[in-house]
Design goal:
Two copies of one chain form a homodimer. Chain A has eleven helices and two strands. Chain A has 202 residues and is mainly alpha-helical.
Chain lengths: 202, 202
């Protein structure tokens, strides 16, 4: 039987693999795609810096924990691009299986705590979860804006799609969402992104 | 004048560059070197998982903040390999200049908080700082042990050097240091690393 510490170290080594899961966004210097581990660090930093803009004063420890663990399931389930409608069909099932395996590597009380926090984040059932989820939308928007709309342009994404995908940010922070819509207006005005999707041809 | 939110977003975009600072350690799959942003995420996860092993019950929020920000200065100052004696000569000066520039991007109260936490971590002047610094030593040791001693072998590092470099881990957590010395004994027994440095020839 592994000791409690041995279980914890096995989990710590297993989650190292999150560093190899690539996202659609690129770094601000456009040198490469971002991976999910460094994205999670960035998100935790954003929680520290931006907490004052939450609609309700958040429990920062809970928000930080959610930011750090929210994407660990991607080790097994992979990253699903947020504008990929087909990939979203079985996303929940793939991620539940991943959560079963990964969090059960930990001692039972810790695995249960992380699993509960992850589900709270996914379901957005608390103000802390909605604020954390809002930051999770804000982070790739900021990276896209800083890279001339890199992944938006690559996939032909228009402002109306970005708004539809990200407007739940307002449930966590109205001030952050107001700021983002202003930045998106500027992105349309500068020609970075179109306002609307072009009509489908056939 | 930038607004408070604009200052915060400028900082968030600037620290994206931490993802491009490479360390000597490699990922557990040995596919590439680790960068400092994902290392910081890994460290924050270790703080969550291993807090119960601290010599004194830590203030987890403070430990998490230190884990997240402790290496931000490397954006300007670069990563100094922990067995590089020459690189250590001007490390403190380079990092102070980096802290001056980077933390001053933030609104003053936040920049001051991060700067103070970073100095507390660097100086190891509290139990929280010593626990965080101990985890910062443990993380590359675990990655090295999981990769057949990759960076130790590359640089010809012996057990006695690893012990000299990392034994301050015991100031933060005696149980973690005891566990590590056991793992290092096994690494010597298996031939992964030598016990002592070979005598210098000339």
């Amino acid at each position: 039987m592994p000791t409690r510490l041995e279980q914890q170290i096995a989990f710590i080594l297993e989650i190292d693999r999150l560093k190899t899961v690539l996202r659609q966004t690129v770094l601000t210097d456009k040198s490469r795609h971002e991976n999910t581990a460094e994205h999670s660090w960035h998100l935790a930093m954003m929680a520290l810096v931006l907490a004052e803009h939450a609609n309700e004063k958040p429990d920062l420890m809970r928000v930080l924990k959610m930011a750090l663990i929210h994407d660990i399931v991607e080790i097994d389930a992979g990253d699903t691009f947020c504008y990929d409608e087909v990939g979203y069909e079985d996303k929940a099932e793939r991620e539940q299986r991943a959560a079963d395996r990964l969090f059960s590597l930990l001692p039972e009380n810790q695995g249960k705590e992380f699993r509960t926090l992850w589900e709270e984040f996914e379901l957005g059932v608390s103000q802390d979860a909605r604020f954390a989820a809002g930051l999770d939308r804000l982070q790739p928007v900021l990276l896209n804006l800083a890279t001339d709309g890199y992944s938006w342009q690559k996939h032909g994404i228009a402002r109306e799609q970005i708004v539809a995908r990200n407007e739940l940010m307002a449930d966590g922070s109205q001030p952050l969402w107001d700021h983002v819509t202003g930045l998106l207006d500027e992105a349309v005005a500068s020609g970075m992104i179109p306002e609307k999707r072009p009509p489908a041809r056939n």
